[in-house]
Design brief:
By secondary structure, the chain is α/β, with parallel strands linked by helices. It has one domain: 3-Layer(aba) Sandwich (Rossmann fold), CATH 3.40.50. The chain contains 6 helices and 9 strands. The strands form 2 sheets. It has a 6-stranded mixed β-sheet, with helices on both faces. It has a 3-stranded antiparallel β-sheet with strand order 1-2-9. α5 links the parallel β6 and β7. α3 crosses α4. The longest helix is centred in the middle third of the chain and has 13 residues. The C terminus is likely disordered.
Length: about 190
Amino acid sequence: MTGTELQNLLEESGAILNGHFLLTSGRHSNRYIEKFRVLEKPDTLDKVCKEMAAPYQDKNVQIILGAAIGGILIAGGVGRHLGVKHIFSERVNSKMELRRGFDLPESIRVLIVEDIITTGGSVFELVELAKKCKAEIVGVVNLVERSATPIDFGVPSTPLLNLPSESWDEEDCPLCRDNIPFTQRGRTGK
């Protein structure tokens, strides 16, 4: 699946929305990607996870790490295509933690998966969590990167689609200045 094919899939499924959105990062944007319009369908979920796994087939990945909630489906799908266990982190008191008996043993080769990246905040937290456990990070793979410039996580990073989207801090948001109300989507509530 090429980036163009993924963008077409996102558009056809109604996943790309226009309006005034408060993103999980806290930034405001005029575009939102509702990834669940793609991930809710077993065939498209399988296709994107297969594509996300492909660059890592020969990298000796031993475990997949995603973040709740969006990363759970992707972690499971990528893990299935690589034939390895998948786990996820959860936020506890605003901090990423492994719960439910999940762990990253020292030196295990971990692939971090993410859905949509705007600022990379969640990925930076997952990288820090993996480093704290002394795991070896093979790379980061994600569905869509919204940032206009690549984000350096200190490890190899592979987005399936680069779809630069404008976003602003609240005080610089032209949509707020124009009194355009928020569209009721666009954040996980963290």
